[in-house]
C-alpha cells in the first residue's frame, strides 16, 4: 500500500522528472533555464525528505543559485 | 515500495532523460543543461541508497557535496567556452 508519506516522495520525484523533460523540450532558452532552476529546488526538497540536510543546502545555494546565475549571464552575452 | 527505492527509480529516470538530451539536442547550452540533469540523477541514486538503515550514511553525502561543486566548475568552464566560440564566430562574420 502507498502511505501518506510516500505520496509526497512520489509527487516530488514526478515533479523533478516533469520539469527536467520540460526544460529540455522548451523552445526559449530563458524558459529552459528557469525550469532547470525549479528542478534544482524540487530536488533540494527531495533531499530534505531523505535526511541529507547538508547536501540540500549545497544544492540550493550552488546547484540552483550559482548555476542559474551563470546560465543567465551566458544567455545575456549570447544575445548581445 | 519504500522511499529509497522510489527515489532510486526517479534518479535513474533523470539520468536517462539527461543522456537522451545530450545525444539528441543540437543547442549547446541545452546540452550543458542535459549533462547537469544527468548529474542530478546520479546524485539522487547515491543519496537514496545512503538513507537506508537506522541513521544516514555520511560518506555518500560527502561525495555528493564534492560532486555538486565539481559539476558547477565544469558547467562554468563549458559556458565560458560557449561564449568564446560565439565571440570568435561573430568576429569571423565581421571580417
UniProtKB/TrEMBL annotation, chain A:
InterPro entries: MrpA_C/MbhD. GO terms for cellular component: plasma membrane. Keywords: Cell membrane, Membrane, Transmembrane, Transmembrane helix. It is found in: Cell membrane. The keyword DNA-binding does not apply. Its main location: membrane. Pfam families: MbhD. The chain crosses the membrane at residues 6-25, 32-50, 56-74. It is a multi-pass membrane protein. Residues 16-79 form the MrpA C-terminal/MbhD domain. This is MrpA C-terminal/MbhD domain-containing protein. The lineage of its organism: Bacteria, Pseudomonadati, Pseudomonadota, Gammaproteobacteria, Alteromonadales.
UniProtKB/TrEMBL annotation, chain B:
The chain crosses the membrane at residues 6-26, 33-52, 58-82. Its main location: membrane. Gene3D superfamilies: 1.10.287.3510. Pfam families: Oxidored_q2 (PF00420). The keyword Transmembrane helix applies. GO terms for cellular component: membrane. It is a multi-pass membrane protein. InterPro entries: CPA3_antiporter_subunitC, NUOK/Mnh_C1-like. Keywords: Membrane, Transmembrane, Transmembrane helix. It is found in: Membrane. Belongs to the CPA3 antiporters (TC 2.A.63) subunit C family. PANTHER family: ANTIPORTER SUBUNIT MNHC2-RELATED, MULTISUBUNIT SODIUM_HYDROGEN ANTIPORTER, MNHC SUBUNIT. This is Multicomponent Na+:H+ antiporter subunit C. It comes from Pseudoalteromonas rubra.
